[in-house]
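Handout, section B. The chain below has 325 residues.
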Amino acid sequence: MTAFKNAPDQSYLFPHRHLLSVEELSAETITALLDISDVYADHNRARPSSLTSLRGRTCINLFFESSTRTRTSFELAGKRLGADVINISVGASSIKKGETLIDTATTLNAMHADILVIRHGDAGAVKLLSEKVNCAVINAGDGSHEHPTQALLDALTIRRRVGHLKGLTIALCGDVSHSRVARSNIRLLTAMGASLRVIAPPTLMPNSIGQWGVEAFTDMRRGLAGCDIVMMLRLQKERMQGNFVPSVREYFHFYGLDREKLSHAKPGALIMHPGPMNRGVEIDSDIADDIDLSLIQEQVEMGVAVRMACLDVLCRPNAVSLGEG
């Protein structure tokens, strides 16, 4: 095993059995995960040989929804730590043949995996599965509910570029109503001392937005005024039942990020997008590809480091037995 210049804190014990929601994480826990992720990010950039901290461990990626970035980064994270990683394609599995979610959990439990990484289209499905297995579970996105590792990697990306999270004004723009990324980021970044705004057309603004502890805007230029970070959100067409926007062209005119709208934010404001991007819908290519402003590729890179940290802490000795939930 190649030595770290600054090794992760091996004494840290994650205070939960699973990683299901940002809501259950304290600011101290978030900071600890970001600190460990920071070390893995530096390690990955140095391109040393693979690590062995998860040698002998088995990680199963069970994705009921298609994914490129999240599943690949979890797979890469596990392999870089020396784990045996298994990807289960739901399209070719027994689930498509009529097996229930509980039967699937029972089957996977019999395989004695150490970690299940689960993405599911229904909110609450990952939590249900976590109650039926003996191993640790990581929520890789459940419906419109949460996506905790995305929020962690977004926070790490910002912290590494800006140096801090506290005091920043961060705008989340686009399809807020259907976005699990928005919900997780609002919870995490607020806990870390940032001020959050959401910007969306009325049809894509949650009815409960008044209870989220954020400033809400339907006018993009007003909402971007004075923002340090602008995070664009993808139109979640697969979760929409009906027409929420008149047309893609009109949506971009009012809510797509371009140079003119960005000029209303703080000078030097940074751009983010969880991906996949719809260029010319949520964001103009000129902005997305500007290496001085765009953090989008860094988000992808930090995703591997954050997921290495999460797999690491959930596989540490006594981590599950000491867990709170």
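Note. The CA atoms of residues 63 and 89 lie 7 Å apart. Compare this with the example in section A.
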